[in-house]
Each structure stands twice: as C-alpha cells, then as structure tokens.
Write a structure and sequence with these properties.
- By secondary structure, this protein is mainly β.
- It contains one helix and nine strands; from the N terminus they run H-E-E-E-E-E-E-E-E-E.
C-alpha cells in the first residue's frame, strides 16, 4: 500500500474540494426556486481521543436540496504517533472518503451529516455508515465544532437557504 506524505495531502484535499465554477448551484440557490437548501462546507483540525493519536483533519463539501443530499466528507487522522518515525508524523495519511447520504439542519447553526464510507485504509470499513455534527459558530466568539469538539484550526460553514 502506498503512502502519501502528509505535506501533500492538504494541497490534494484543496484540489478535490475546490469549487467547480462550471457546476450549477444546488437547487434552491440562485435558481428562482423557493426550496430549502442546506450547505455545509469547510475544513477543521480536531484533537483525537486519548493516547498518542494525532489530530484529525476533516474536510466537507455537502448540500441538501429537493433532489436529496450530495457531497463528500474526507477524513484523515487519528492514527498513532510513532516516535522515531522518519516522517516525524507517525502512521499513514490515507484518507477516508465518505459519500454524503443525508443532512439534517439542527438548531444553533448545526447540521448532522450522514454518509457511507467508499474508501478507507482498512477494507472492512468500506460500506459502513456514520454521522457527524458540524457547527458553525460564526459571530459567537467560539470555535466551530465537529461532533461537539472545538476545532483547533479551520472554518466550518453551515448555511440554510430558503424558508
């Protein structure tokens, strides 16, 4: 299995998540329709659980419109730090790709985003389903959060368009 150095992953993620200027906007945004649309975008670095695990990097570009939920979450991290590792980062930087299957708009500028794993470092994880809650704390003076965990760096945008 090939490894991608972590210094290459962030530029790769930026390329994957860059807006496609030729793409039409989600239904309900600038389309003359009055449907409700929820958009969740951004990137956050969050601390991992206990032990010697490195922080997680989570990127999201997802939206909900009258045709359903669309988008992807890319998650990297939570692997164990290995002292003396030549890259001094420890473990693989293999990303998990999660295709979005549903989005629920929650109070307090939050959205629960659910999806299915379509790529993972461990094959047994492919096809598994899960959810994460993204909170946009813009204007509150607090850090944005992913699953209630304040992000160490980055920005999450949760925006609802329509009625």
């Amino acid at each position: 299995m090939s490894r991608i150095p972590l210094v290459l992953v962030v530029p790769l993620l930026s390329a994957v998540l860059s807006p496609d200027v030729s793409a039409k906007p989600p239904l309900g945004i600038n389309s003359g329709k009055t449907t409700t649309t929820v958009v969740v975008r951004g990137h956050g670095k969050v601390p991992s659980g206990t032990g010697g695990f490195l922080p997680s990097q989570v990127s999201i570009h997802a939206w909900l419109d009258s045709e359903g939920a669309h988008g992807r979450v890319i998650w990297i991290g939570d692997f164990e730090f290995v002292p003396g590792d030549p890259q001094d980062e420890g473990g693989p930087a293999d990303p998990w790709f999660i295709d979005v299957t549903s989005i629920s708009f929650l109070p307090d500028n939050s959205a629960e985003v659910c999806g299915v794993v379509v790529h993972a470092p461990r094959e047994e994880a492919i096809g598994k389903k899960g959810c994460q809650v993204f909170t946009d704390n813009r204007g509150t003076g607090k850090a944005d959060t992913i699953d209630g965990e304040p992000i160490l760096a980055g920005n999450i945008m949760v925006k609802k368009f329509g009625p």
